TrEMBL record:
It comes from Streptomyces diastaticus subsp. diastaticus. It comes from the Bacteria. InterPro entries: Acyl_CoA_acyltransferase, GNAT_dom, Ribosomal_N-acetyltransferase. Pfam families: Acetyltransf_3. This is N-acetyltransferase domain-containing protein. PANTHER family: FAMILY ACETYLTRANSFERASE, PUTATIVE (AFU_ORTHOLOGUE AFUA_7G00850)-RELATED, RIBOSOMAL-PROTEIN-SERINE ACETYLTRANSFERASE.
Amino acid sequence: MPELQRLRADHAPALLAFERENRAWFARAVPDRGDAYFADFAVRHRALLSCQDEGTDHFHVLVADDGTTVLGRFNLVDISDGEAELGFRMAESATGRGLATEAARAVCHLAATDYHLTSLRARTTVTNLASHTVLTRTGFTVAGETAPDSSGGERMRRYAKALGGDVLRVY
Ligand SMILES: CC(C)(COP(=O)(O)OP(=O)(O)OC[C@H]1O[C@@H](n2cnc3c(N)ncnc32)[C@H](O)[C@@H]1OP(=O)(O)O)[C@@H](O)C(=O)NCCC(=O)NCCS
């Protein structure tokens, strides 16, 4: 079974490969990271680990059975007052198997138990039905929608989840 691992320095090569190989796939659903992200990947990876050490964010990768290949990433970012934002993305080749739902549940469990958070929020475009499915199956409820921005961008749907006794179902 794929394993959810807390982000480490030695994940860098596999994480970069994951982002490169799935760049076009991700860009269909979320804004492209831009060329600078790939050029400066090593610096950025170290910065993420510093944030993690400081406790402002918790990053995770879903690692395949081969022990190396990154299949997905599941992050808790912008932690403040016991709340964090959940973000995730899966390699195209690993989708449709329930893995994102399993990993999101596992991250919610970690958020409550190891990170002592009390609530999570998430957001996605209103047309991202796969993300909506993962979030609702993980216990998030719709908290509202943003109006389209002036540049004609898509409406975003906001989600929230309180971390209590109902989140401790882990697969
Ligand atoms: C969203 C994402 C993480 C889902 O990953 P996944 O591993 O396929 O998710 P799961 O298999 O756990 O669940 C997805 C569910 O949504 C369903 N789904 C997928 N696309 C769908 C669509 N266009 N319409 C309706 N349902 C859809 C799947 O069938 C599945 O439900 P099922 O188990 O009943 O078949 C993945 O598609 C992804 O990384 N997309 C690109 C980046 C992204 O959108 N990230 C989220 C930003 S908020």
